[in-house]
Amino acid sequence: MVFGGLTKTSLLDYPEHVAATLFSKGCNFRCPYCHNSELIPLSGNGPSSAGGSSSSGEFLISEEEILSFLKKRAAVLDGVCITGGEPTLWADLPDFIRKVRSLDLLVKLDTNGSNPSMLKDLIDEGLLDYVAMDIKNSPAKYIMTAGLSLSGGRESPLLEKIRTSVSILLEGRIPCEFRTTVVKGFHTKEDFSAIDDLIVGAERYYIQSYRESDEVIEKDRCSAYNKEELLELVSDMTKVSPILRGIE
Q1: In angstroms, rounded to a whole number, what is the distance separating the alpha carbons of residues 162 and 135?
Q2: d(C-alpha 177, C-alpha 154), whole Å
Q3: Cross-strand pairs, 3
Q4: Contacts of 188 (CB under 8 A, 6+ apart)
Q5: Would you say 38 and 53 are in contact if contact means Cβ atoms under 8 Å apart?
Q6: What does the alpha-carbon distance between residue 59 and residue 66 come to, in Å, rounded to a whole number?
Q7: Torsion-angle region of residue 60: left (phi > 0), alpha (psi -120 to 50) or beta?
């Protein structure tokens, strides 16, 4: 695997644990409000040198460098959060997680849910301790919110994969959460009524407000709701209980 960033210590990314956060390179979504746009291009050939820059000028961290760091910090860390980008794009993700778990570290995976087969395999093998899955929007607006082509329609193969990933997590074999970053112009009250049906049975569903950043892909299209507006947006949800996160 190749990584584009590392947070050496986090008290926020893995609930109730001290963790290092690893940002994998590459994503198959192009969400207009994405704060990690520099991670989107997939570096299939790996870094030109550990911790160095590739020929395209992007900063890359090798798997070997990450594992070396984790070995040194294993005594003070509870686990790692593997985020991105989209980590499940990497075929060698399971092998990397096996190496992390050999250090007696817990593993949390952040995913957009677009690779349910890998998600299932990771859970079946017991490689994950916690999963956070992004719910981008209602099914009718999922493709648009993910920044992808509308040609597949509202019941595209991607949506089938999202639904499958949701179903896998709702089986309850592993602690998990669902979460939505809420952006004015993308999300409405009607969308959250549809999300209510999509993830019915979820124990943890977090609402987090969009925050402005110069790294956002399409900054001009994005703005934030305030707390009162967010509460109104989710007020008709009855099948899951949304929790506001990071909103004062």
Answers
A1: 8
A2: 24
A3: 24, 61
A4: 233
A5: no
A6: 14
A7: beta
At 234 the three-state DSSP class reads coil
How far apart (Å, rounded) are the C-alpha atoms in residues 78 and 20? 9
Q: Consecutive 10-residue runs of the chain (248 residues): their mean pLDDT?
A: 93 94 95 88 46 49 96 96 96 98 98 98 98 97 88 70 98 97 96 98 96 84 93 96 88
* Token reading at 170: 């709702």
pLDDT at 50 (0 to 100): 33
What's the chain's Rg over C-alpha atoms? 18
| CA gap 65, 68 in Å, rounded | 5
Burial label, 157 (beta-carbon count in 10 A; 0-12, 13-18, 19+): exposed
Concatenate the DSSP letters of all residues of 151-163 into one string. Answer: TT-TT-HHHHHHH
Peptide bond into 152 cis (omega under 30): no
Measure the CA–CA gap between 225 and 8, rounded to whole angstroms: 31
Sign of the torsion formed by the C-alpha atoms of 31, 36, 39 and 41: positive
Do you know the residue count of the chain? 248
- Alpha helix locations (H) across 82-151? 93-101, 116-124, 142-145
Neighbours of 9 (CB within 10 A): 12
